[in-house]
Write a structure and sequence with these properties.
InterPro entries: ACT-like_dom_sf, ACT_dom, Beta-grasp_dom_sf, HD/PDEase_dom, HD_domain, NT_sf, RelA/Spo_fam, RelA/SpoT_AH_RIS. By secondary structure, the chain is of the alpha+beta class. It is built from 29 helices and 19 strands. A hairpin with a 5-residue loop joins strand 4 and strand 5.
């Protein structure tokens, strides 16, 4: 993910700081009407409405400094670069952010573009402003192994700064909004890249913080650059429909206003049009044409009090018939981002579905401004206080994930999972409401309560009935977790948990508990890779010190562990070591000209723990031809050589595959899937199960599929066996069972 802003590359060469002209006054900037020249007149007017004279003076100093630093720098549009920080500050002023935030908005690019040090900003403008600017600046001076790693680390830095001060992300969203508004000057490739990043990261963050106005605008701007033809076509269709439906909208507005007035209610009623992206998404999800999307228009009813919301709802249901299943009470159970409203869909004139949102003025402020309402309306309403608490709780979870996460890419993966806007609301046994992402499981619930509870979970009850840990939760479920202090997380949990907190906590535990196994595997893999380059695995101490210094590993054991869990590739580390030795000796051939020695396969015993996993797609057993895949943070995953998913993965990442072989002493049993076609007759299942038991195999799962005529039945078993010889004997025995017509091993 690339976090570069559209204007990080600019035309024109900035002058050196020593040669910069004297700075301008904030009040004396040229008006915006002058083409290509930045203006701060409008910004000054907005700030003077709520900042004190002393605060305005500090903002002016920040403007002068930013103007001096960016002197000679221009945007792709040809405008002076200072116009961008001014525009960002103006968006922040619309939220009435404090003076420190406005100063940071004006200065947000000086560290990144002009090499201004944080110490200088502290000296000039104070530590809070400098910290905000630092949180907004990217890490371009650090060298990363890959572009993806650099992008992920930039994003992590921004989110962690946001966790300590939410103003960081507000300024960043203002920055992104202005860049998206002026994206037309970029190349088509950059437009798509920046728009995709905005849709993937910044849109869900804006939604998560309840900033609905920015959320909708960023969504539509991203849509217009990702799919310009679709955007233009849909825009024309909406304009045409707007004229056709004007009379319907007018009739509904008049009827609703009159009905509420007759009920003695003071209410503001107005129509609103769905965003183009909202219409497009509905067409895609439900496979509809534009003409089939009937609820392009919705209506908002804003009343005076909490109780009036429900009175208005009843009044509207008396005016138009409600559609069954289309009522949602987000007042009683508000959304994760603090949003509150009653939603109902009614059958309006001419049979057209019409959506209504009913809320109070306070709810409306929160719905439009989200967490920014803290600055806009400092009146101490309880719902805003709760919104701040919810936001703080989510930001705190970012810090929890950071502490448990191995690297930036993993951190980013976990956070993106938690940015999904759809939510499910469940209850603890004491009736406390817990909000989780859609698709979250009972185990996610346990980790949401506390990491310690999640780690020790052994069972769960949903609505007083026992259920599997992987059960997806539904709205209204009452969830009770059963724990055991001796229980520990299982690597299989990673296959079904949904939340970033649960995933990072499980991975952290597995890394910590199974460190020795990972170290041993990593040491063996690196030794093999070094041998292939004709390098003695017993490295001299100077080479080890250089390697640790350049790889940022604390010790060789740390390096081995990272190789063992797939975070680093042994072949790349070996080539790095070759380069270090080459630098010292100066007389070795390039690794590209070496003839690699034949690599000895890694030996698999099946008892290595989570450092070595048997792939669930093919479930290899001793006797199968096997191959190993090094996966990031999952160690070595073993597949059968003829596994089709493995073959597809090898084509994508051939360098992550190594030779493996079975050991000679295997003192455990291995899972294997078999499928039987049987006649549907009395007692057949009992006969098959008995034969499996007599063949010294254990059954761990059984499933059954019947055909429509109920003549033939397909049985599926997961069994535990010793090896291929044991499996072959079992299959022969099952084929002799009366009523069994076919037996075969099942593959993915």
């Amino acid at each position: 993910m690339n976090l570069t802003t559209p204007d990080s590359t600019h035309s024109g060469t900035p002058k050196t700081r020593a040669a910069r002209a004297a700075s301008k006054s904030l009040d004396n900037a040229v008006p915006a009407t002058a083409p290509g020249v930045a203006s701060v007149t409008q910004l000054s007017a907005k700030l003077s409405e709520y900042l004190t004279p002393s605060e305005l003076k500090k903002v002016k100093e920040a403007y002068r400094f930013s103007d001096e630093m960016h002197l000679g720098q221009v945007r792709k549009s040809g405008e002076p670069y200072i116009s961008h920080p001014i525009a960002v500050a103006e968006i922040c002023a619309d939220w009435k952010l404090d003076a420190q935030a406005i100063m940071a908005a004006l200065l947000h690019d000086v560290m990144e573009d002009q090499n201004v040090k944080k110490e200088e900003l502290i000296e000039r403008f104070g530590a809070p402003v400098a910290t905000l600017v630092d949180g907004l600046s990217k890490l371009e001076k650090i060298e990363f192994q890959t572009l993806i790693e650099a992008q992920a680390e930039n994003f992590r830095k921004m989110l962690l700064a946001m966790a300590s001060d939410v103003r960081v992300i507000l300024i960043k969203l203002a920055d992104r909004l202005h860049n998206m508004r002026t994206l037309e000057h970029m190349t088509a490739v950059k437009k798509r890249r920046i728009a995709a990043e905005t849709m993937e990261v910044y849109v869900p963050i804006a939604h998560r913080l309840g900033l609905n106005n920015i959320y909708r605008e960023l969504q539509d701007l991203s849509f217009s650059h990702l799919y310009p033809m679709r955007y233009r076509t849909l825009s024309k269709a909406v304009k045409a429909a707007r004229g056709n439906r004007r009379e319907v909208v007018k009739k509904i507005l008049e009827s609703v206003k009159a009905t509420l007035a007759n009920a003695g209610m003071q209410a503001e009623v107005y129509g609103r049009e769905k965003t183009l992206y909202g219409i497009y998404k509905k067409m895609r999800l439900k496979h509809l044409s534009f003409s089939q999307v009937l609820d392009v228009y919705g209506f908002r009813v804003v009343v005076d009090s909490f109780a009036d919301c429900y009175v208005a709802l009843g009044t509207l249901h008396g005016l138009y018939k409600p559609m069954p299943g289309k009522f949602k009470d987000y007042i009683a159970i508000r959304k994760l981002n603090g949003y509150q409203s009653l939603h109902t869909t009614l059958i309006g004139p001419y049979g057209t579905p019409v959506e209504f949102q009913i809320r109070t003025q306070e709810m409306h402020r929160t719905a439009e401004s989200g967490v920014a309402a803290h600055w806009l309306y400092k009146s101490g309403e309880s719902n805003l206080t709760e919104l701040q608490q919810r936001t703080h709780s989510w930001l705190q979870s970012l810090l929890d994930i950071q502490q448990q996460t191995g690297d930036s890419a993993e951190f980013l993966e976990h956070v993106k999972v938690d940015l999904f806007p759809d939510s499910v609301y469940v209850f603890t046994p004491k009736s406390k409401i817990i909000a989780l992402p859609r698709g979250a499981t009972a185990l996610d619930f346990a980790y949401t309560i506390h990491t310690g509870i999640g780690d020790h979970t052994v069972a769960v009850k949903i609505n007083n009935e026992a259920a599997p840990l992987r059960t997806e939760l539904r709205n209204g479920d009452i969830v009770e977790i059963v724990t055991d202090p001796n229980s520990r997380p299982s690597p299989t949990w990673l296959a079904f948990v949904r939340t970033g907190k649960a995933r990072s906590a499980i991975r952290h535990h597995l890394r910590t508990i199974n460190l020795n196994e990972s170290v041993e595997l990593g040491q063996e893999l690196l030794a093999q890779a070094l041998t292939a380059l004709n390098i003695n695995p017993d490295l001299p101490q100077p080479t080890i010190e250089k390697l640790l210094n350049e790889s940022s590993a604390k010790s060789m054991d740390d390096l081995y562990a990272e190789i063992g869990i797939g975070k680093r590739m042994a072949a790349l580390v070996a080539r790095h070591i070759f380069g270090l030795i080459d630098d010292d000796l100066g007389n070795l051939p390039s690794p590209h000209h070496l003839v690699p020695a034949e690599l000895d396969p890694v030996t698999i015993y099946g008892s290595e723990g989570v450092s070595v996993q048997l792939a669930p797609c093919c479930l290899p057993i001793p006797g199968d031809q096997i191959i190993g895949q090094l996966r990031r943070d999952q160690g070595l995953v073993v597949h059968t050589s003829d596994c089709m998913p493995a073959k597809r993965l090898r084509m994508k990442e051939p360098d992550r595959w190594i030779a493996v072989q079975w050991g000679t002493e295997l003192n455990r049993r291995f899972d294997c899937r078999i499928r039987l076609l049987i006649n549907n007759e009395k007692g057949i299942l009992a006969r098959v199960a008995a034969e499996i038991g007599e063949s010294d195999a254990n059954i761990t799962y059984v499933g059954m599929d019947e055909d429509e005529e109920h003549v033939m039945t397909q049985l599926r078993f997961t069994i535990q066996i010793k090896d291929r010889v044991h499996l072959a004997a079992l299959i022969r025995n099952l084929r002799r069972v009366v009523g069994v017509t076919r037996v075969e091993r099942e593959r993915a």
